[in-house]
Design brief:
Layout lengths: L1 H14 L11 H6 L3 H10 L6 H9 L7 H16 L2 H10 L9 H48 L1
Helix pairs in contact: 3-5, 6-7
Keywords: Signal
Pfam families: DUF2799
Organism: Litorilituus sediminis
Length: 153
């Protein structure tokens, strides 16, 4: 599985020149960062595409070190395993954020399982709160109607 993930990420990175997801990383900071493994890890944990490296590479031009790509991929692989976990799926579901497309197929099922459990719990909680609010509104309306009926007599 490790070899498949590594090959998948390398193929994806090589095949795609850009990504539709904007990078939230400053090129000035990242170009000077000698720890590209850390950069890759942070990108993955932010739920960004592996292709974010291409944007960083373009921004850095000549300032990027030759081994940046391989160390970035190593960090990204570590981070994407954590991001695509059941536990993170739960967290993302609580926050209502779903973008499992960044997760490789092998990891996506666990992430989505966690997400679905949390999303369903949030939905039930929201429905319960809405019913309570509806009951309160009905109670207030009934009280108002009784007070109005008492005044007219």
């Amino acid at each position: 599985m490790k070899n498949f993930l590594a090959m998948f990420m390398l193929a994806t990175l090589a095949a795609c020149g850009s990504t539709s997801q904007p990078s939230s990383y400053s090129s000035e900071t990242q170009c000077d960062d000698s720890n590209w493994q850390n950069v890759g890890y942070k990108v993955a944990m932010a739920g960004k595409s592996v292709r974010t490296f291409n944007q960083l590479k373009e921004s850095c031009k000549d300032a990027i070190v030759p081994e940046a790509r391989s160390t970035y991929l190593a960090g990204y692989q570590q981070g994407i395993k954590e991001f695509c976990s059941f536990e993170n799926g739960l967290q993302q579901g609580k926050e209502g954020k779903l973008d499992a497309t960044v997760c490789p197929k092998e990891l996506r099922a666990e992430f989505e399982r966690g997400y679905n459990i949390a999303a369903k719990a949030v939905e039930m909680q929201n429905e319960k709160a809405k019913r309570a609010a509806d009951r309160e509104q009905m109670r207030q309306q009934q009280t108002s109607d009784l007070i109005g009926a008492g005044r007219s007599q």
